[in-house]
Design goal:
Blueprint lengths: L7 E8 L2 H11 L3 E4 L7 E6 L2 E8 L10 E7 L3 H10 L3 E9 L3 E7 L5 E7 L15 E8 L2 H12 L2 E7 L5 E7 L2 E8 L9 E7 L3 H10 L3 E8 L5 E6 L5 E6 L3
Parallel strand pairs: 1-4, 5-8, 9-12, 13-16
Antiparallel strand pairs: 1-5, 2-3, 3-4, 6-7, 7-8, 9-13, 10-11, 11-12, 14-15, 15-16
Length: 255
Amino acid sequence: MSTNQGEFVWYELMTTDIAAAERFYKSVVGWTAKDAGMPDMTYTLFSAGERMIAGLMAMPKDAEGMPPGWIGYIYADDVDATAKEVAARGGKVHRQPDDIPGVGRFAVVGDPTGAVFCLFSSTSEEGQDADRAAPGQVGWHELMAGDLNTAWTFYSSLFGWEKDQALDMGEMGIYQIFKVNGQPSGGMMTKPKDLPAPPYWGYYFNVDAIDAAVERVNAGGGRVVMGPMEVPGGSWIINAVDPQGAHFSLVAPKR
């Protein structure tokens, strides 16, 4: 079994204006960007230092009015077998396993409550160890599930995730932190009833300081929809929308 099994290993933004999105995230998060050199499409690679973090591409023509958004890729040693297991455990396979030439194999799937993510396995054995708290890295993964218990049973059985702290959020319910390969990776909870969105995964990009990042979001044409807010452990977060309408989050060690 790969040491990456069950880890979030890649992130991808599909949007309506790739040039504008590149400018925005380079400014807000501090990523560098370069073209991937793919022969049949424009695909931009975002990096933090020497480490590639995410990809950027135009919305596919067959997206059927789907809004711009981020999606995460979870490593699976056997994408085909895992996709079958997703379906067997009540999830849905939105795109059957397929090859990315020279890169790996992937599938687009959804959990039983409707949150969408991708499965991925690489043709390379190289790992990408990094300081998850460093600027530009993805510091947290957050699931707003249709039902926490259903989602937890699904992901823990599929990927071997383990429970960490369970935070009592009062009327909002339990926020369950989870560990992947022994390290805290994110949290999940039942989506608040007044949140006007289907179940979804959200991704928190690390920045140095949250107030300065808010200024960059606003200057770039984005919009903060929640925060700044201090969370247990002393970090500061915001939830925001980029100029094309894709939701994202930022986390920083200081205000």
